[in-house]
Amino acid sequence: MIMQEELFLPLPKEEAPERVMRPSTTYWQDAWRRLRQNRGAMAGLVVIVLICLFAIVGPYLSPYSYSDQSLIRANRPPSKANPLGTDNLGRDIATRLMYGARISLAIGVFASLINLTIGVVYGGIAGFFGGRVDNVMMRVVDILYGIPSLLYIILLMVVLGPGFGNILIAIGLTEWLSMARIVRGQILSMREQDFALAARCLGASRWRILFRHLIPNSVGPIIVTATLTIPQAIFLEAFLSFIGLGVSAPMASWGVLASDGLAGIRSYPWQLLAPAIAISVTMLAFNFLGDGLRDALDPRLRS
Amino acid sequence: MLLVLWVIATVTFILMNIIPGGPFASEKPLPEAVKRNIEARYRLNDPLWKRYVDYMWNLIRWDLGPSFKYEGRTVNDIINSGFPVSAILGVTAVALALLLGIPAGVLAALKQNKWPDTLAMLAATVGVSVPSFIMATFLMYIFAYKLRWFPAALWGRPSQVVLPALALAGFPAAFFARLTRASMLEVLSEDFIRTAHAKGLSTTAVIVRHALKCALIPIFTYLGPLLAQIMTGSFVIEKIFAIPGLGQHYVTSIYNRDYTVILGVTVFYSILLVTLNFLVDLGYILLDPRIKLTEPSS
Amino acid sequence: MQKRLACLVLALVLIVGGIAGAERAAEQIIRFNIGAEPETLDPAKSTGVPEARIELNVFEGLTRLDENDMPQPAIAESWEISEDGLRYVFHLRKSQWSNGDPVTAHDFEYAWKRALAPETASQYAYQLFYIKNGEAYNAGEITDPSLVGVRALDDYTLEVELEAPTAYFLSLAAFPTLMPVNRKVVEADPEGWFLKPETYVGNGPFKVTKWVHNSYLELEKNPLYWDADSVILDKLVATTIESEDTELVMFETGQLDITNTVSRPEIPRLEREGLLKVIPNLGTYYYIFNCEVEPLNDPRVRKALSMAIDREAITEYVTRAGEIPAFAFVPPGIPDAEPGKDFREVGGDLIEENVEKAKALLAEAGYPDGKGFPTLNILYNTMDMHKAIAEVIQEFWKKNLNIDVRLMNQEWGVYLNSRDEGDFEIARAGWIGDYVDPMTFMDMHVKDGGNNDSNWSDPEHDRLIQLAKSSNDPAVRMQAMHEAEAILMDQLPVMPIYYYVEAFLEKDYVKDVIYSSLGFIDFKYAWVAKH
Q1: Is the Cα dihedral C65, C66, C72, C73 positive or negative?
Q2: Which residue intervals of A115-174 are DSSP H helices?
Q3: Among chain B residues, CA nearest to A216
Q4: Using CA atoms, how far apart are residues C90 and C153, in angstroms rounded to an integer?
Q5: Which of C40, C216, C412 sits opposite B154 (nearest CB)?
Q6: Chain C residue closest in CA terms to B39
């Protein structure tokens, strides 16, 4: 049968085309909406805000500074004057915790961000492109895993000296490796799945498939790994302090406070418990928030 | 793979030679003559490139050289005596972590937002927040000091494996639990699971045969580096429990600037790491029939 | 009257009985911790305390230190010293190696020359530099070992010639570096003879029967030791645990009888329980001022800094193990010229603490009330204790002088390098004596000395040290060193903080272990009471 153009009649143009009556919600708007509905996540967020307030405002309310010593009042258990007790030089642990929070939170969040950017993108690209690209990129990760980090940390310390920015560099160098591997594994398993195929058939660009389809679908392990980075980074910082790359004493981060407190676990348990509980509570809050984020961001759980 | 090892060995060689300090530095500086004799004996006064070439040549023959710090002991000897100890401890710890972590994660995913979930995740959060050195001190305090169920330290009897293995397993177990839960939740909502249910398979069969298999991918990925790391020993745990493993050498050799030991253990660890990662890649294909390691068909 | 006498006798019997009543336990084993894996057990090459703690019980030198650190005859039964103090002749007793070979003067000659030989590359070769031509042989300036001043005249007579009179040579003779080794065994496997119990042949009260690297060593009584009858212990277990926490748990759960050290926060409790043992240690903890750096090049500034800290507060609240605040450089425990007098007692305190004076001195130097004083760094190697001390000192200077200092910690290797290169302003330091004589503390401050990190020098001070070194008259030597120390403490290139002590735990049933102020432990006469 021969189709003739004359046989097709164009429909008359409608004056008022169909309109979307409700404002369309973007991916992020939707995610935020769902996050707000998640009670656990909001509780986590509130706790995080409180901890941030504790870190930022707290020191102004405390009668002590992080370095105020009083040797005769060393190692006192919690009391009215010192709600969390005092340390080996009679300094107020609560106040030191507030200052420490500034360092540790900043480092934890920074490490997570590094993970979420470098780690996710790196792993995503390796897994998505596969083949030789993947091989080369993963071998680079192997090399970075293989070289003892202590060596370049010492080198960094010698070259740059102690300082907050240098801690961030050291953490940035080391903290994204496991994330890259995990994301790559996820992408490998997903790139051949139907939804990726569908996206490709619809003509989506490679980058779009990777960033709009594959990565959002691996958000679960990504969030778990990212939240996990926080305590790891906090203790890595304590280790950096040990090498001499950390913040100078008498300022102390949570990690350093915990390591210092460990020595007196029998006689002065509060010196360990205070920073340990602070770290755990922070972690709990970030985990709840993370789980909420995961539920909110995972496209498969969208309703 | 050999290229990777070569790069690691070379970079490590360069790094350790540019950081300040030397194997024989001490708070009491040595007289010049004594220093010269030592440098001659350990060939530290050879030019750097010569030491590098010599080292690489010996490395090919798996002769890792003598330790600078521990008189009369070779690096091969240190690895041969330390690795089995660390490996036993490490494998025990990983097995413990898998046995604790995966079931907890599956349970949590199946009972999402109910009390078993909350409880398991609370424990897991504490598990990842508490680093192994605090965990170790804590375990020792409770089980060796207060309850006296286990010896505090040293190595040789099965009872001496328990505390260090537990301390080592804490973090990976918690991480496994969280990872399993997260990926289980994702897998459970996928079509093929629904299909499996529709086919009338029992819930257990669906979970074990279909869901868990896919959910294990992130764990499997993590297992490569974890095994390499944990089998070659943990510095902190071996120090705290006085275990004659390989792990303490990674850190102490760097503090001691014991050059041959630094290189030897680094290369050994890297071989293990690269091999395990390779096995993980192979394992992917077995775990998930959809995975191909080649470039995607497009 | 008779009754009273009877009572007295009874009391006496009870007392004597009480002493004898501390009966020996059936199991004569002591478990002690040496705190680190021995780097070597070759006495010629070892440098550290953990190694010495094993070697001292496996070998015996010409002399052995008693509980007062005085040298007593050991393998040498007797000796003669020449008028000028340069020639020693030792008469050896007939004794055996643990493999049955006789211990002869040739073994000593061989051992000492071996320690000095350049190819041995011993770090502690300088312990033998007192011997004639010892240093020259070690430096390769002479190659003929027969020129070195040690000679076996026959199997049981050893002749030693010294470079200069060395008052403490008999003490040195008890040191690991000067212990004999069995030539046959050593030459069969020069690199590894000390690693295997079968070839680790000694001549001391014990022998090693097992060495599990990075874990523990086992020693058993050596039945061939010449004085084996005095040895009561059957076995020693030496663990190499580094963690203070771990050794404390093991001690408190009965798995360890003597610890290597003690965790500071636990000291008050352990002291109350009577388990803490504190012995003086020949060492000084101090800060070095880099005298080339403004404003530390001004002695008034150094003096002001030194006057503005409270050393007693530091030892009482920070170090806590009974350390002694240091008001001079040479620690107590070293005999002076006059018998029975202590060098420190004779010298007295040489510096004072006085905040008002410190302020005045600082103002005089151009920094009234700390105005214009640059922010200096205190450098220390990473350790909780060093950090705490630096924090306290920082606070003292802030409070008393209104000056700010920053704290900077470095990893050990990097820290040593910074000190060596003079890349610091104020640095923490510690010095442990090598032998019981003030010289081990005094000769480190001479111009261009290898251990003089302060870049300070003073010709008069150097002249006095040289005088002390070349004299054989104890009175002259000690006087010169007192004067040199006075100059040092007036100029203060180094700021003494406290004298070290060694604090550790010992079970009450452990008896008669000899602890030396040099860190050695001697188990020759030790035993375990019933418990």
Answers
A1: negative
A2: 120-129, 131-146, 149-160, 164-174
A3: B186
A4: 10
A5: C216
A6: C121
What is the Cα–Cα distance from B147 to B13, expressed in whole angstroms? 47
DSSP β-ladder status, C405-410 and C376-381:
parallel
- C279-502 matches C2-240+506-528 in CATH topology: no
**Which amino acid, B205?**
A
Which of A90, A248, A262 has the CB atom closest to C407's CB atom?
A248
The superfamily (CATH) of domain C2-240+506-528 is Periplasmic binding protein-like II (3.40.190.10)
How many inter-chain contacts (A to C, CB under 8 Å) are there?
80
Closest CA to A114 of A179, A49, A166: A179
Q: Which of C179, C222, C206, C160 is nearest to C75 (CA)?
A: C179
Instruction: Give the pLDDT mean for B113-121.
Output: 81
Please state the rounded mean pLDDT for residues A251-264: 85
Mean pLDDT of A201-210: 79
Task: Starting at the earlier edge strand, list the strands of the sheet with C157-161.
Answer: C76-81, C87-92, C157-161, C150-154
Q: What is the pLDDT of residue C226?
A: 93
**CA-angle at A278, arms to A276 and A281, nearest 5°:** 105
* Mean pLDDT value of segment C163-188: 90
Rounded Cα–Cα distance for residues B221 and A221 (Å): 11
Helix (H, G, I), strand (E, B) or coil at C503: strand
Query: C132 pLDDT exceeds 90?
Result: yes
Identify the chains in contact with C, defined as 3+ C-beta pairs within 8 A.
Answer: A, B
Q: Does C107 touch chain A (CB under 8 A)?
A: no
Task: Give Cα A286 to chain centroid, integer Å.
Answer: 8
Domain residue limits, chain C = 2-240+506-528, 279-502
Structure tokens at C242: 């580094």
pTM given for the model: 0.84
pLDDT-derived band at C17 (thresholds 50, 70, 90) equals very low
Are C265 and A88 inside 8 Å of each other by CB? yes
Q: C279-502 — its CATH code?
A: 3.10.105.10
Contact B285, B100 (CB under 8 A): no
CA distance A57 to chain B (A): 25
Residue C141 structure tokens: 């300036």
Residue C195 with chain B: CB contacts under 8 Å = 72-73
Residue C382 to residue A162, Cβ atoms within 8 A: no
pLDDT at A5: 63
Q: For residue B161, is pLDDT > 50?
A: yes
**Range in A158-162, B243-247, C229-233 with the lowest mean pLDDT:** A158-162
B39 to chain A nearest CA, in Å?
22
C-alpha–C-alpha distance, residues C280 and C334, integer Å: 11
User: Averaged over C373-387, what is the pLDDT?
Assistant: 91
Helix (H, G, I), strand (E, B) or coil at C320: coil
Q: How far is C269 from chain A (nearest CA, A)?
A: 8
Q: What does the alpha-carbon distance between residue C397 and residue C406 come to, in Å, rounded to a whole number?
A: 11
Mean pLDDT of C273-278: 90
Q: What is the pLDDT of residues C291-310, one digit of tens each?
A: 998 889 999 999 999 999 99
**Is pLDDT of A234 > 50?**
yes
Contact in structure between C311 and C327 (CB atoms under 8 Å): yes
With contact defined as 3+ CB pairs under 8 Å, the chains touching A are B, C
Q: Which residues of A touch C390 (CB under 8 A)?
A: 249
Q: Is the pLDDT of residue C189 over 80?
A: yes
For range C236-257, the mean pLDDT: 91
- Burial pattern C512-530, b for ≥16 Cβ within 10 A else e, equals ebbbbbbbbbbbbbbbbee
When comparing pLDDT for C472 and C184, which is higher? C184
Determine how many CB atoms are found less than 10 A away from the CB of residue B207.
21
Query: Taking CB atoms and an 8 Å limit, are C245 and A262 in contact across chains?
Result: yes
Could you read off the pLDDT of C333-349 as tens digits, one per residue?
A: 888 888 888 999 999 99
